[in-house]
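Deliverable D4.2, example record:
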Amino acid sequence: MLDDASSQVILSATAGPLPAASADAVRALADRAAAVDGVPPLSEQPLLWLAAPEAPVVHLCATVDDDLVGYAQLDVGAQTSTKAELVVDPTHRRAGVGRALLGRALAETTVVPGRTLRVWAHGDLPAARRFAEDQGMAVVRELLQMRVDLTTRPTGAPNLPTGVTVRTFVPGRDEEAWRRVNSRAFSYHPEQGRMTSADLRARESEPWFDPDGFLLAERDGILLGSVWTKVHPAGEHGAEPVGEIYVVGVDPDAQGLGLGRALTALGLDHLTSLGLREAILYTGAENTVAVHTYERAGFVRAAVDVMFGSDTPSSPAGVTMGA
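Output generated by the structure prediction step:
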């Protein structure tokens, strides 16, 4: 969420993990914003990176009278662009907090000459779009949330390629093989393809992690692909718990066998077996092949997150992007 006014705020920048109290304050701020906006302002990765010592991020905190009223996390792990997510307290919007955070984000971005700033806005809310437009930022990427009704989708044993077997993920044994295939499968992807061992371990430590919902497809002991599922508790995506096809990845050498389609079906079967009624997944709008594949599986478009940016490097002289 972004705001669109101008006033003085106190900003601090921190590289590396936030102190526990500060991380808790960010989570509470995000919860307050989500309660008002109906959509979480920060995605999973920034929340995991709040206290991660290896995370390539800069934390920007905006305070008024020592109270946290705004936060931005900058992913500075790439040389060509900085990716940011922002949240402003609902009671302090239109008071300059968002503009101050964006200005500091631009300054941090230009530490590397030629690097551009990209800002995610979850839910594509009208206020965020207006603010982005005021700052000269256009939509440069869209992330679709798609949903499927698990109670009406057809079921049946998926057709696995000849010689392929499926088993559950074994923590402590399968991490590096999975990361290798994930990196190959998502070599084009700016976030998923960069998942580190620390990122994977952090997810394994989350309350939602369940190895029974993490399925690996192998042939002759060689990992070819996987489907990783997740269950969101009631209140996150509706009144009831909702399943998610969290990651589906197929090694490039195994593509064209229908393995991705079969793994998706197996993941949905697992979520259905848990008694869930709906499942979601996220995919880039530009990946039309994946979108059409999921639509054939019964998924429909339900929401969209948008990334704003400009095609020119950020300017350290001011907050207007594209100037």
